[in-house]
Amino acid sequence: MQNAEIWDLYDKQRHLMGRDHIRGEEIPQGCYHLVVHVWIKNRNGEYLISQRSADRPMHPLKWECTGGSALKGEDSLTAALRETKEELGLTLSPSAGEIVSSVVGRKINGVQFSDIVDVWLFEYDGPVDLTKATTAEVAQIAWLNKGQIKRLFDDNEFVDTLGYFLESSTF
After folding, report:
1. Maximum Cα–Cα distance for the chain, whole Å?
2. If you ran DSSP here, which 8-state letter would residue 132 be given?
3. Domains in the chain and their CATH numbers?
4. Could you read off the pLDDT of 24-59 as tens digits, one per residue?
5. Residue of 49, 96, 97, 115 with fewest CB within 10 Å of its CB?
6. For residue 14, what are the CA distances in angstroms to 81, 120, 131, 145, 170?
7. Residues 6+ apart with CB under 8 A from 71
8. Up-side HSE of residue 32: CA atoms within 13 Å toward CB?
9. Residue 70, exposed/middle/buried by CB under 10 A (0-12, 13-18, 19+)?
């Protein structure tokens, strides 16, 4: 499969299983793949969020934080930095971020996920230029505070699997 996205598979304890997985195929029982969510906060307490492009297969035109699946060989930080560069054209300093949550096998609205989700929080106060993004996954970006993001959730304009943002005192 040329151009297929390949992921590493992990067990529930986050140990590499030495097995590759092709994106789009069913993940075997007892296996998990690594996903990163990247929240970027400025000194004004606002978060950089992005609106998904209209052609995205899931959640088109919904707002979200940056993120995605780690590629084969990537650790969590490397995946977070790559996704941010690809989607936003933004190069973050590795030392500006920290993992604020990690969940294995989330269950949301009755749906079981076969993933390990590392939630990153980065501090950033520089410019953002979407023309430097290397994918067309993002339609637009905005700096919003937690109250404004809650309104997007309430209006069903935010990806619903990111509700932990509103429930956490970390943000």
Report:
1. 46
2. G
3. 31-167 (3.90.79.10)
4. 999 999 999 999 999 999 999 999 999 999 999 899
5. 96
6. 20, 17, 36, 33, 23
7. 5, 6, 7, 79, 82
8. 22
9. buried
